[in-house]
Write a structure and sequence with these properties.
Elements: E1 4-8, E2 34-42, H1 62-73, E3 77-81, H2 82-87, E4 97-101, H3 112-115, E5 121-125, E6 138-140, H4 148-159, E7 163-166, H5 170-178, E8 184-190, E9 217-224, E10 227-233
Parallel strand pairs: 2-7, 2-8, 3-4, 3-7, 4-5, 5-6
Antiparallel strand pairs: 1-9, 8-10, 9-10
Length: about 230
């Protein structure tokens, strides 16, 4: 790893070798965790370079993978969408809670997301969902869709989660950002161009109405071999 600091406005200003090792994050609100999103994407925003619906393998390089794990270590809990689990095994440090949001209940219960620490693995589901196979630990919030604000409130007040890491995919990122539930966005931008309208991007879903968008402030930029590690405050 040969990280170079291009910009850092944080109070910490870590040495490049210590980047993301110990994050100083603002206190969590009383009604939800402090939410930080982490994604890796090609220059054209693709989060998959293999088959549609596949994993993020091959998007980021070795330094991205290292920083990816460091960010996980800063979290009390992690959140992903169900499509991320269906794409392949999702592995977290054994001590952190993990949540998956699903509308259908179509979850691969054999995924390591559930089997590594079943006592910490939760499904976020609509209140009226009836499915053949669901994990025993659930947060039910919302009727026809998952009410993310209500689910995050339960995480904070019932589970004591103060720092929540969201690792996508694009539809979940879109919902969290549009609903004003995201506080920071970490983005690895890789020097690759993929193309293809059929491939998922960093933020998909419904999106904002015409003329509307979410602003973000650049916090820091680091680089290694042309790969950029960007941190934004939302």
């Amino acid at each position: 790893m040969s990280l170079v600091c291009l910009l850092d406005t944080t109070l910490d200003k870590p040495s490049p070798e210590m980047l993301y090792l110990r994050l100083t994050l603002p206190p969590a609100p009383s009604d939800r965790p402090y939410v930080f999103i982490n994604m890796a994407a090609t220059l054209d925003g693709k989060i998959v370079v293999g088959e549609p619906g596949g994993t993020a393998a091959g998007v980021g390089d070795a330094t991205d993978q290292l920083l990816f794990r460091r960010l996980q270590q800063n979290a009390d809990a992690a959140l992903v969408g169900a499509a991320t689990l269906r794409a392949g095994n999702v592995i977290y440090p054994p001590h952190i809670r993990r949540y998956v949001a699903t509308l259908s209940g179509n979850l691969p219960l054999q995924n390591r997301f559930f089997t590594d620490s079943p006592e910490l693995a939760y499904a976020l589901i609509p209140e009226n969902l009836q499915a053949d196979s669901l994990p025993p630990l659930q947060i039910r919030a919302g009727h026809d869709s998952v009410d993310l604000a209500a689910a995050l409130k339960q995480m904070r007040q019932k589970h004591g989660v103060q720092k929540l890491l969201c690792e996508g995919g694009g539809a979940l990122n879109d919902a969290i950002i549009r609903q004003g539930l995201a506080d920071e966005f970490f983005l690895t931008l890789t020097p690759k161009l993929k193309g293809g309208a059929h491939l998922a991007t960093v933020m998909g879903g419904e999106g904002f109405p015409p003329g509307q968008f979410c602003r973000a402030s650049l916090v820091s930029v680091y680089m290694d071999s042309g790969e950029l590690y960007l941190r934004y405050r939302i």
